[in-house]
Each structure stands twice: as structure tokens, then as C-alpha cells.
Amino acid sequence: MINAEDVFETFQKHRGDAIVIATGTSGRVWRNTSTNERRDLTLGNTMGQTSSSALGFALAQPGEKVVFFDSEGSLLMNLGNLATIAGKKPENFFHFLMDNECYATTGGQPVPNASEIDYAEVAKGAGYASAHSFDNLEDFATNVEEILKETGPVFVALKIVPKVENLPIGLRARQPERSRAETIKIVREELGISAD
Amino acid sequence: MVNQQPALLKPETLLEEFRKNGVTHVITIPDSETNYLYELMVEQDWLDVIPASREGETFAIAMGLIVGGKVPVCLIQNTGMMESGDSIRGMALDAGFPMVFIVGYRGWNRHGVVTDSAARYTEPFLNAMGINYYLVEHDDDGPRISVAFDEAKKNSRPVAVLIGDEYHGFNR
């Protein structure tokens, strides 16, 4: 398994000017890693549907590389979206899955069939142009640059060390975060998209 | 005296309303009554049709398209709309963008005796979400679709268009 921080540090070296959308627990880690927050976009706030909104954005902006960091709990809530994505064949869409095999924010309960399911095979079977899986940092670091040059939709499944949170949600430390509306406004400015 | 039945709703009427309002994408899960509309939509070079796997996706895909500068419409059935509750909340209402969605009103009829619970709960569902809606039954009602677009833009909110009688005019 790989630490989420290491995944993001490694990805960051090859990000270029990609638009990055991160959801779930990983999203919070990415916000501490990103060095280009003007191209970080928040599209979440619905159970499991951020992969769909990320697809919509990728289709609207085919000239931009769109990298989406998903979690396996979210993906399982919206698994049909793999077929929806594959059907539209967005060449600019890179779908990274941060799979910690559990619902970390609710105390670490396992997701269904947590350690047996092969998400890369599922994505490949759904019709993604390519799918990869990594469970150690060295292999991921060796391959990520070439993967980001592939034609999408590309799927990358990563086994991640879980960071289980057990404190009642109201007692957890809250990080200052930019709102979804704020990230949308800035990304639109960055890409010259009319707000109408 | 014989009352003439108004013209049925032609799929061309919907398409013309989409074109007039600058629609770029239709995200849809077809139902059994909309085959002809689907075929017409995919023939249009100005329109991109996105088939979704489940209705909740349609609102999220639409939201991403809007953020990216496009003008999408969701085209689903009332059963799927009810499945989409959390997506409508998070991706349409909370997002604060204009978004029009077209809903096949399964089970609706003009006689007031509703036997299909899909119809019984459709308007209460929209009312509970605070979403305004317009009923479109035949061609004469087509301009209500533009009214829905204008209202969505003015208020930066979702607005629904309910297609009464489930597109019966859309079959060949």
C-alpha cells in the first residue's frame, strides 16, 4: 500500500497544467500538496457523483487535461459511470482511484468485497482506453509520467494506506477550505470561460 | 359540437426549443416512449447526446458541463428523477446554476384518476425540493420550455419541464 501523500507528491511532479479534481479524504490531502490551486476544481457535494461532474467538465473542455482523484467508496456508489465515461471516450480524462478498502471517514468499515475486487479490470471491461493498478510507490513513480501521456479515458487504481477517523464528526479538526463556488470561479477565470 | 384534440407533442418541437435556447448537450436515459426523439437528437450536428447509466448521473454531468461553459439539458423519466434526489440537491440546487431538466411524466393523465404512484409523487417531489415546473402536453405548450429556460437563467436555479402523456407523440 502507498501513502496518499506520496501519491500526490509523485503525481505533482508530472501534473503540468492539468485541471485536478479530487474527492473524499484524498481531496483534503491533495489540497495540502497542490502547488497550482488556480487549476484545482471542487465539483463534489453529492454521494458518489463527482466522477460524473468531472466527466461533464472534461467533455466541456476537451483541450484541457482533466485528472480526477476518486475513492473506491464513491466509485461503488456510481459504478455505472464507468460505462458512461467509456462510452463518451474523453481523450483528456484521467481517472485515479485512491482505494483504501474502507470507509475511512466513518470509522474504517470495509467497502463491499474490499480486498477482492479488481477495479482496473472493471474499468477495462467497461471500455476505458487503458487501465493500470499499483500497490507500491516505486512502480507508480516509474510509470506515472508515461501514463499521463496516454490517450484517455485512462484508469489508474492505487492501493492506499487508510487513515481512519473515529472522532465524532463534529469534534474533528476542520481545515480551512476554498468553497466549491470559489474554485469554479477561479478555474473559469483561468480558462476564460464565461460565467453566463 | 366536437372538440378537436390539440396536436400531439412532436419531437421536432422539443428540438427546436433546445436549439433556440442554445442547448449543447442532452444527458439522457431513454424510456420506451422516446425512441424517435433519441434518433432525432443524435442526428443533429449541433447537439451532443450523452447516454447515462443512471439518472443521478445526469445532473452531475450537467453541472460539470455548465462549469465548463456548456448548456446541457437532462432528459429523464419521473421515476429516475426521484432516484436522483441527492444529485438534484447537491449538483443542481446547491450549485446555483441555471439548469433545465425534462421529465417524462409516467402515469400522468388528464382525468385525475392516477393509478401509477410514479405520477402521484412527481409534483410533491418537485414541490418538496422547491423546484418550479411547467407541464407540456402538446405542440401549443412548446413555448413553455423557453419560459423554463428564462426562469432558470433569471434565478440561477433548476426548473423542470414535465412532459404529459409520456411522449406518446414521439413514437413512429
Largest β sheet strand count, sense and barrel closure of chain A: 6 strands, parallel
Rounded to an integer, what's the Rg of chain B over CA atoms? Answer: 15 Å
User: How far apart are the termini of chain B?
Assistant: 30 Å
Sequence of secondary-structure elements of chain B = HEHEHEHHEHHEHE
Taking the alpha carbons of the first and last residues of chain A, their distance comes to 44 Å
Task: Briefly characterize the structure.
Chain A has 196 residues and is α/β, with parallel strands linked by helices. Chain A has eight helices and eight strands. The mean pLDDT of chain B is 90.
Blueprint (SSEs and pairs):
The complex is a heterodimer of chains A (196) and B (172).
Chain A: H1 4-12, E1 19-22, H2 24-33, E2 40-41, H3 50-60, E3 66-71, H4 72-77, H5 81-88, E4 93-99, E5 102-103, E6 109-110, H6 119-126, E7 130-134, H7 137-147, E8 154-159, H8 180-191
Parallel strand pairs in A: 1-2, 1-3, 3-4, 4-8, 7-8
Antiparallel strand pairs in A: 5-6
Chain B: H1 11-20, E1 25-28, H2 35-43, E2 48-51, H3 55-67, E3 72-77, H4 78-83, H5 85-93, E4 99-104, H6 117-120, H7 122-129, E5 133-136, H8 143-155, E6 158-163
Parallel strand pairs in B: 1-2, 1-3, 3-4, 4-6, 5-6
Helix pairs in contact in B: 3-5
What does it look like?
The complex is a heterodimer of chains A (196) and B (172). With 196 residues, chain A is of the alpha/beta class. Chain A is built from eight helices and eight strands, in the order H-E-H-E-H-E-H-H-E-E-E-H-E-H-E-H. In chain A, the strands form two sheets. In chain A, strands 2-1-3-4-8-7 form a six-stranded parallel beta sheet, sandwiched between helices. In chain A, strands 5-6 form a two-stranded antiparallel ribbon. In chain A, helix 1 crosses helix 2 (24-33), helix 1 (4-12) runs parallel beside helix 7 and helix 3 (50-60) packs parallel to helix 5 (81-88). The longest helix of chain A is centred in the C-terminal third of the chain and has 12 residues, at 180-191. The radius of gyration of chain A is 16 Å and the shape is globular. Chain A starts with a helix and ends in a 5-residue tail after the last helix. By secondary structure, chain B is of the alpha/beta class. Helices cover 42% and strands 17% of the residues of chain B. Chain B has eight helices and six strands. In chain B, strand 1, helix 2 and strand 2 form a beta-alpha-beta unit. The mean pLDDT of chain B is 90. The A-B interface holds A 41, 43-50, 52-61, 78, 80-81, 83-84, 87-88, 180-181, 184, 187-188, 193-194 and B 25, 27, 48, 50-54, 56-57, 59-70, 72, 86-87, 89-91, 94-96.
